[in-house]
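WARN retry 2 of 3 for item q-0093 after timeout on previous attempt; input resubmitted unchanged.
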Amino acid sequence: MPKKEATTDLWVYDLLKEANIHLDPQGSSIKEIDQALKTASKSGKGNVGFPEYCGVVGDFLLVIEDKASLANHIYRNDKDLIDLDPKYTRAYAVNGAYHYALHLAANTSYHRVFAFGVSGDEKHHRITPLFVNERGDKTELPDVETFISFSEQNIIEYYHRNVLHEETDTEKATAEVIRDARTLHEDLRTYGSIKDQDKPLIVSGIMLALREIEHKNFAIDNLNGDSLHTDGEKIYNAIESNLKRANVTPDTKRDKILSQFAVIKDTAKINEPEPSLQKTPLRHYTEFLYNHIFKSVKFHQSAEDYIGLFYGEFMSYSGGDGQSLGIVLTPKHITTLFCDLLALKPTDRVLDPCCGTGGFLIAAMHHMLQQATSDAQRRSIRRDQLFGFELQPYMFTIATTNMILRGDGKSNLNPWDFLKQNPAELQQKQCTVGMMNPPYSQGTKADPSQYEINFTEHLLNSMVEGGRVAVIVPQSSFTGKTREEQAIKQSILKHHTLEGVITLNKETFYRVGTNPCIAVFTAGIPHSKDHVCRFINFEDDGFEVSKHIGLVETPSARDKRQHLLDVWRGAEAPSRFCVRTTIEPDDEWLHAFYYFNDEIPTEADFERTMADYLTFEFNMLTHGRGYLFEKGDEQ
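OK item q-0093 returned
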């Protein structure tokens, strides 16, 4: 085996190991597959033939053929078909993998085969999957960066989404939640004329009241439109009971939260019977939430934040998303990404000083709980290791409710103005991880304290030495447009270390019009001039805008996320994806500032360029403009 190809084999082995996929090299430990390979030679003469890797994941057979050079990735004939002539199956990765897939699908009991042609190395490569069935039908699939989609946990979902083109259970559930949220939003407007800011309060208040059903302190059937003891009062009383049951303390904090829910009992229109409903709007909303949302939240304790989806949908309507206050709610795929980028551990203490509806803290709580090894550690995570501040009263109320509904963790939420807190005092909380999505576009030269980068520095100053911090902010935060922002950048590097910046999809905050990025820091350790930072272009993250739905996850998102994490943790990548470099305070801390093209053109690139030039010259000649190519008079 050529030395370069052996290097590719080892790199592929590492990718498989990362995805927890165990395949056999140069053969198979499964008897019927090994027997079939004895007649699988690429020459077509019935001799033995071995792909680089072969094995079974679930009910699927995986086969991998690799080549060291990108030039040997795939060969198509003049009909644009993958050519199965032996000279091409021997020379090209995809062609060889396709050959083995056809042979094994026809000669074993494994009739669902994923074949992979892999070429190149860790930095410059292609991984092209194909699906082949026992009839020889082939489905060509988009290139991937990792094998994570083909692990035991993910391969069924990948098959249904990419081969069968069916919706997965998660996609169906998400679509249902979004439809339900829109329906309830319309009903809140139609039957209650509820202000945008009050809509999520009514939803979260009813959800808290529903928790009292199991304690016999609340029953939907008791919502009967009584004018003496209104439906709103019954719900309000149930909310008060549940806040006490959840041990929301001190009393002043509980009273502050409860006051936000007064809208439920004080809004006359939703407490009066609606003729078209034959019940009060409040009972209608309560029945709807119980049947469509409460059961899901109660019985599906996973990272999928159903109530968060509801809030996000409500707040996407005019004025309800808090944009006038600079509040931009963070999507779930970003909150969970933070946990991976910061390598969150069950022993960490997490601070989100601008917690909004609690998305980061919920993601952190679930991430830490999944790693916990004892009930005592799980109790500590919920009770002692999550800290959040939220200045806006209605947002603070929603965050507290959200945390209660998603499994506690609300005891250290406080309605504080983060910028007014003394960082030295906050350090005493011994927080090791900071996560933040600060208010956007509030800073001015007259009030530079509201710049996103000032929030960032304040958070860094509030962490223990060596603490890990990630923030999501507009890209403009790191260009240093004003003298004040430039001074803050210099101050940050004087006391803290920038680890890297990830440029995100421009649609991450759908309908907000912000181009965001994630910056990761180590707190309390001055930035060395020799420290190498990572600047990554992750605009192509596998999420796209779907009409009438918003930002949705495509089948490639999981693979792209894994590739991002691999590169963040040290894997090689071309400079169009990642640049590693030292920095200066005056630099624009963005991938676009440091990018350079390090990709050597291939022979195919040269041929395409020459073909384009010759086509252009021919067109000019046929249009009477041949003089463009005549040499000038020699001097």
